[in-house]
Design brief:
The protein is α+β, with helices and mostly antiparallel strands. The protein folds into 3 domains: about 1-165, no CATH class; about 175-265, Sandwich (Immunoglobulin-like), CATH 2.60.40; about 270-375, no CATH class. About 45% of the residues lie in helices and about 10% in strands. It is built from 10 helices and 7 strands. The strands form 2 sheets. Strands 3-1-7-5 form a 4-stranded mixed β-sheet, with no helix packed on it. The chain has a 3-stranded antiparallel β-sheet with strand order 2-4-6, with no helix packed on it.
Length: about 375
Amino acid sequence: MKQTNDVMKKFRRRILRGAILKSALAALIIASGVLLVTALASWIFGFKEGIWLAIGLFALSFAGAALLFFFFKYRPTAKDVASKIDAIGLEERLITMMELEGDDSYIARLQRADAKAALAKADHTLIKVAASVALCAVVGVSALFGVGALTVDSLYVAGVIPSAVEAAEYAAAEHDFNVSYTVAQKGGKIYYRGEDGIMVDEEYNKLEVTGKIVVHEGEDAPSVIAVPDPGYAFAGWSDGLYDPIREDKGITSSLSVRATFVETVSLNDLLDDGDGNGDHQDSDSNSEPDPDAPPNQDNGNAPSDETPSSPNQDASGSHSDSNKQVNDGNTYYGDEYGGAYDSAMDRLGSGSDIPGDLQGGVSDYMDSIGKGGSGDGSGGGN
């Protein structure tokens, strides 16, 4: 009988292991649910100490549920052990032996002897220590949700994410952002756009942009324009935009940009041929005078010896101070314009060192002063 009990112990131990495994898995489902609820509640309401409460309740609920599942559901009885052993090939010999327990008849004794012999030959490793696929699947899903909730709560405690209440309050509130337009160093100012569009000179409203502009989230910042001071030109914004008129729309974060202005080069410097003497006339100093040129006009040749009788005589014989057509108080600039114009056009047309983005401006400038000085739009030229 003792030998039989020793054989039965091997089978019972394996069956007990399976019961313990099932109890632990079932308890893990309950504990994961507790972890999910506690961790989510801590994150939703912003209770940072709740993470430790969640971990503590998880451990307690797991231990308590495992004991309850083992003693009230999965703990094997003697009949359970006999049934599992019979299932590996004993063909209900042990169940029958238990039913005939106490029967001392010849048949009963023979049956017990047969059952013991079959039990001695049975392999206890055939008893599987395993759980059902369904139970394992439920455990996996519940554990995933529980760990996910704990991770979210941990990120909140670490300050990476806000609580659910804080996030809801932030989403419901209106948000303002600072937009700043400043000048990098000097050379100009930034103005708001006029109500009727960008206006210049005296019509421009010239309300200078100073300090930060507060813009509601999603709204547009007011249009601005970068206006250079005399002797300067606009070079661009610090974020790579080159249009002096700026319209930032749909603001969703703070913005700070600077306008850069650069000093402009004077016309004499642009027309200087590099000898340092400001020689703006043709290099061919031996060219013959044009017999058809007006008497007081350079026309690219040697300067005229004639001096106008009055600094106020215009192109038709009378210059006008009101048009500022005198460059030194004595000489009418129309008399000097022809040679300067020819020299400038030669340099522009022969691959000069004048930058390409300035060549058009130089040409327009020479044309404009010619029209202003001649009185007839001819530029006083050839």
